[in-house]
Structure prediction request, 221 residues.
Amino acid sequence: MSIVNNIEAIENEISGKGVTLVAVSKTKPVEMLMEAYNAGFKRFGENYVQELTDKHEQMPKDIEWHFIGHLQSNKVKYIAPFVSLIHSVDSFKLLQEINKQAAKHKRVIDCLLQIYIAEEDTKSGMTEDECLEILTSEALKSLTNISIKGLMGMSTFTDDEAQVKKEFRKLKTFHNSLIETYPRLSTISMGMSGDYELAIEEGSNMIRVGSKIFGNRVYPT
Ligand SMILES: *Cc1c(COP(=O)(O)O)cnc(C)c1O
Prediction:
């Protein structure tokens, strides 16, 4: 299967469900992304700031770049000129920095708040309480160069489907309660190669799929 076939297969699976596919291209060379681009696919997700800025420089400028990895405050400035959506906001301090850098470029940067749902404590994110604290804070009102669009979550890395389902359901339940008060937080980014079908069943409307499109990743040792 080619990259383009893989994307088309997933697009067919999700069509009519109101789900957006983000192709996660971390560690993959520009040539592979260009195969997708040349077939009309223009939405990519990256985890590392340096890699994202390199690819942004080398590739056409009508690409929608999503940042999905852990983001350090001191690196926000490198992606602020062009990033479309940051999925991985895990603190108010980070939001403040994104706001500051977005203002320099006269932009409003869309963000998702990453909620901690997994059992492993290696997965970053904030608790539901921390999320509510941010959303109800006075200080948020002054951040006019960011727009919070919804939530992101990563499930535990496990074969235990019941566990993963439980985690997605918990996030969706929280999301449902939030959008009653904050309808603009309509995005819920959950689901990767191994669990996006389950995530969609549980109400996801944005999936982040890497290896099922580009093949397994090889990390330098
Ligand atoms: C790498 C990554 C993905 C994609 O993972 P696959 O299992 O290859 O689909 C999705 N979301 C995040 C946050 C990632 O870091």
